[in-house]
Design brief:
The protein has 2 domains: 75 residues; 51 residues, no CATH class. It is 66% helix and 6% strand. The chain is built from 3 helices and 2 strands; from the N terminus they run αααββ. A two-stranded antiparallel sheet has the order 1-2. Helix 2 packs antiparallel against helix 3.
Length: 160
């Protein structure tokens, strides 16, 4: 009986030792999985932040380049407009500004030259102060001579 009792105590100790070991292994496994999860989350967040930063800097660079290109094009338009308006042929064609005195052949030649210089301009026109179209490029006889009164375009009374 004593032997049976010793076996029973030994069995309980063995069961207790196995249970402790199993619990310890389970705790270590859970701790390892939690550590792996935390490290993975930190790595993913770091990678995401890096990608967001990279994409943001790419978008900023693209926006700056686009803004410079637009500014360059607008400057080119202004320079071209200034060159056309200061051209002797244009000034002569407009004359004193009296629509009856406009040299429409000369105006048409100036607008045709503008179109040759900047083919991306799809349309250009000259109208008198009353809104009547005097010349267009490309030439469009359905528009020339029509009055497109532009009430939003108010010229001052002392306009030269």
């Amino acid at each position: 009986m004593r032997r049976a009792r010793n076996r029973s105590v030994a069995g309980r100790q063995y069961d207790l030792t196995v249970t402790r070991r199993t619990s310890t292994v389970a705790a270590i496994t859970v701790a390892s999985l939690v550590a792996i999860g935390v490290i993975s989350a930190i790595t993913i967040q770091s990678s995401y932040d890096s990608n967001v930063g990279t994409e943001t800097s790419k978008l900023e660079a693209t926006a700056q380049v686009t803004a410079q290109l637009i500014a360059q094009q607008m400057s080119g338009v202004t320079d071209l407009e200034q060159a056309i308006l200061e051209q002797r042929r244009f000034v002569t064609a407009i004359g004193s500004g009296d629509p009856a005195q406009f040299d429409t052949v000369q105006l048409q030649a100036v607008l045709d030259q503008l179109q040759r210089l900047r083919p991306e301009f799809q349309f250009a026109a000259v109208a008198d102060a009353g809104g009547t179209t005097r010349a267009t490029a490309p030439t469009d006889h359905t528009v020339i001579g029509r009055n497109f009164d532009l009430p939003w375009l108010e010229l001052p009374d002392e306009f030269p």
